[in-house]
Amino acid sequence: METTETPQHCGGGIYNYFQGATINNLVINGNMTKSGDEHISNNGQTVDRSVRPELITKALRLCGSFIWGNAAYSIAFCVCRDAYKMGDNASLYERLMADNGIQIPAGTINTTMNRNPWMKYHIDRWEENGASDRALKLRDEFRRQIETLLLGNETPKQKCQK
What is the DSSP secondary-structure string of 50-116? Predict the structure, then answer.
């Protein structure tokens, strides 16, 4: 007689069914979403990984010396899109920034991305696709500032380092 082992459903739930795999994004019937917005830091504390417009504008202001013009705001948009799962809606991003005091002319993000094809790639692949040095510096500094703000390690006189 053949016996089969059934997946363990009680107590372990999805964790045991997938042998410990982590699910970062789960969509059920297209209308219920759970996003992986939390992360466990080195000291074991849960850190909120979502970026809100207020946090983005604060990080952008801290990186003011790296911003060469309106097109530079596209770098921050791509970081938010790729590293923080904010979404790929450039016009919404422009409106959110305007609501928080950073005026980006309508269409700037999309125009910049069309003129710089490397921006369509994930931010970790920009070097191999021809991104400029100033774009890479802003990407790295903006990301560093976001991480610092997410962890709550901001000091009153925090400034970007060139």
Answer: ---HHHHHHHHHHTGGG--SGGGHHHHHHHHHHHS---S-HHHHHHHHHHTT----TTHHHHHHHH-
